[in-house]
Amino acid sequence: MTNTIVVIGGSAAGMGAAGAAKQVDPDARVVVFTEFQDVAYSPCGIPYVHGKEIDSFDRLILLGKEHYEAQGFEIHYETVVSAINLAEQTVEVPGQPAVRFDRLILATGFEYERPDIPGGELDGLYYVRDIRAAQRWDEVLDTVKRAVVAKAQPIGVEMATALAHRGIETHLVDPHPWAMAEIADPDIMAPVEESWREMGVHVHLNTQIKAFLGTERVHAVRTSDGEIPADMVVIGAKKLPNNHLAAQAGIKLGSTGGIIVDEHMRTSAAGVFAAGDCVEVPQGTTGVPVQGLSGSHAYAQGKIAGSGAAGKLRSYASVYVPWGLVGGKWMIGGVSFGEALAGALGIPFVLGVAEGISRARYYPDFKKIRVKLLAEPGTLKLIGAQLVGGEGVKERCDFLAMAARKGLTLHDIAWMENVYSPAMGALNEPMALAAQNGLANAGES
Question: pTM to 2 decimals?
Fold first, then answer.
């Protein structure tokens, strides 16, 4: 009998799940429902098209619809699933017969936190997510002279940079004393903020947004420091798990609001898997549930869920959350905890910091890089990191996340092997220098 696997959601987790299911069971019937007009595009690339670093939205489409048809996927575009009936193993779509499943995968993604202030219903408020909406907004941007970015969350950081590249007068407003204060350390963000000012961005920190002003369309933003005229507002809000269908079906949710899953991405309901921004998974050092991670996390989780739904259980490990993005003229990134977040959570740590360079000093166009390492007192196992630099941040974050996962210590990193080639890497690896300084701070130099 054919195994019918229904996937709700067509982004990274959903299409990763669908593809993995077909790999494990080529004869499976895989049915995907998505509320959007497209699947398998990269929403993370949208700010870079707005900023003209990427010349076309078409480049964000990974595979065309014809590919999925040829592979035997049944994809229902612009279709909203209204309910899940676990007893009858069906999903309900308004105006259509119920669709039965043998296995169900929830990849319902996220929804942005909506600002609870006056004017939140006005036109001209842009939530960056859907590629078709982004294409329409890109045409609007051709007419925009002044824009406000509300909150310096990651998408706000990227969009402030993109709008500045576009030549638009940009105001970034955030209630915290530095940008991305819930994630990054102030010394990591300081070069970013300085570069924004060099690019013409007006940075309003320690500033609350009180209201969006306008009749039908926003024309200004009222803040705790006064009004800012605006032709549009980018909402750089937090991502919240889209858990409505799961909650309606009685599937257990966790402390973050994300769906609780085990190491195989199975939910509390038999035969139901979940992956991506709608789930919560344990952070490796603390075991505390975290949610709303990156596209690479969502895709990997989708692969685990799809394999399991097709009959081959695989395991997804606790996460150490390597992250990175471009802010202003700098690359920033980290692993798990920075100094500020660890301090706020009461996590003790030994700190090692170093300034280094990405290539030999005599090689043209070398870039500075700052590395901060956090280690557990006593064992000196790596528990977190933060970086800012001109290049090489991504690769170091990937390595440091694996180092934390494998329990490497400051001793291991301090005397690590590293590539030395003038065009590719400096004699002294900045991570090793930071670890050596951490050992000195721990009294073990």
Answer: 0.93
